[in-house]
Write a structure and sequence with these properties.
single chain; 4% strand; mainly alpha; 102 residues; two-stranded antiparallel ribbon
Length: 102
């Protein structure tokens, strides 16, 4: 059931989509995003090994399912030395600088 009533305050032209079509589009989009993530993971290297050679296929799939994209602007700090290491970053596009204080 609907949780609210929507009433036109003035004459309106609306676009709508039925639930089945919306879900089908979302499912296609989700599959496409997953495939894009899997393609990215095929390129990820840790030292001299590819991630897909280190992990089992179902583990790579799990990483792809859990990964989210985030954009950073030039000069924006991604992580700081001393921060808790609670995330694994993979660069899809662009370059980063790594600084280590001694």
């Amino acid at each position: 059931p609907r949780t609210a009533t929507v009433r036109a305050r003035e004459d309106c032209d609306l676009w709508f989509m039925d639930r089945r079509a919306f879900r089908a589009i979302m499912a296609r989009h989700k599959r496409k995003r997953l495939n894009m993530k899997l393609m990215l993971l095929e390129k990820v290297k840790i030292h001299d090994k590819k991630l897909v050679d280190i992990l089992k296929p179902h583990e790579v799939h799990s990483v792809a399912m859990a990964a989210t994209f985030k954009e950073y602007s030039q000069g924006q700090v991604i992580v700081r030395q001393g921060d808790v290491g609670d995330a694994f970053y993979m660069i899809e596009n662009g370059n980063v600088d790594v600084y280590i204080r001694e």
